[in-house]
Amino acid sequence: MRFIVIRVKYIIFAVIALVLISGVLLTSRRAVTTFLSGGREIPIYSVERPDDKIALTFDCAWNDDDIDEIISVLEKYKCKATFFVTGKWAEDYSSSLNKLYRSGFEIGIHSYNHDDYTKMSREEIERDMEKCDTAVMKATGYKPVIARAPSGAYNDNVVKTIEDSGRACIQWSVDGLDYVEGASVDGICEKVISNTSDGDIILLHNGTEFTAAALPEIIEKLRVGHELVNVSELIYKNNYTIDHTGRQKSGGMM
After folding, report:
1. How far is residue 36's CA from residue 46's CA, in Å, rounded to a whole number?
2. Crossing angle of helices 122-140/156-164, nearest 10°?
3. Averaged pLDDT of the chain
4. Pairing mode, if any, of strands 53-60 and 146-147?
5. I need a surface site. Which of 137, 210, 236, 249 has the fewest CB within 10 A?
6. Phi, psi (degrees; rounded to nearest 5) at 178
7. What is the pTM of this model?
8. What angle, rounded to 10 degrees, do the helices at 94-102 and 67-76 form?
9. pLDDT at position 76, please?
């Protein structure tokens, strides 16, 4: 009788373990994200990596006055970068978007017109992203696989809708604050260079007064100890976890 009881206990434990493992595998990476975030959906802010990779990103929603200069600086230093564009920007400045794409820079979407996704339903967000996709594809022929919510504002619905669409939801861990009143070349450089560590995602913007001018120093200083890559090269595509800070880590549940 004791032998039977022990065997039944082990069988129960085995079934529970199998159910938990199967649940993780069947619901893929997003279930792991939710588990480690206490039930909340969290975008990727940064990545824990075994190397020194970081990602330089630009949000494009205003004008294209400095795009040629930004491209020139990035190409001079052979520096990779990712540009998150709104659909309206893609339509208004399609030639600049095409230049970015032809120059080899990664393109992500940033909504159609920078409207707040946290105030939208799932269906509204899906339609907005599709509209942005259409604008980007018309200019480049490329459909983006990463997205950044407008103003970085998100809730569970925003992150889940973006990821369920097959896109990675990307935030940032270092903000150059190049768009604020009182910004300067020195200030932007200081904020980026002093705060960047391995695995960080840096936020800058085009269409600002000082960003292009700050780029050379930022790149020169950062590439001493880091490799600058596209966001898609920095993040893990599967079998990962995300902690409560938005730090993405390779591997399953811990």
Report:
1. 15
2. 50
3. 88
4. unpaired
5. 137
6. -80, -5
7. 0.85
8. 10
9. 98
For residue 39, give both structure tokens: 């039930």
Taking 3-state DSSP, the helix, strand and coil percentages for the chain, each rounded to the nearest 5, stand at 50, 15, 35
How many CB atoms sit inside 10 A of residue 192's CB? Answer: 26
Q: Which residues, 6+ apart, have CB-to-CB distance to 55 below 8 Å?
A: 81, 82, 200, 201, 202, 228, 229, 230, 231, 233, 234
Tokens 């039977």 label which residue?
Answer: 4
Q: Which residues contact 238 (CB under 8 A, 6 or more apart)?
A: 28, 29
d(CA 194, CA 182) in angstroms, rounded, equals 19
Q: Are 127 and 176 in contact (CB under 8 A)?
A: no
Given a contact cutoff of 8 angstroms between Cβ atoms, the answer to whether 69 and 100 are in contact is no
Q: What is the pLDDT of residues 9-64, one digit of tens each?
A: 444 444 344 433 333 333 333 333 433 445 689 999 999 999 999 999 999 999 99
DSSP state of 235: S
Determine the distance from the C-alpha atom of residue 86 to the mean position of all C-alpha atoms in its chain, rounded to a whole number.
14
Distance CA 195, CA 253 (A): 29
Q: Is the pLDDT of residue 193 over 80?
A: yes
Alpha helices of 141-227 — where are they, by DSSP H? 156-164, 185-195, 211-222
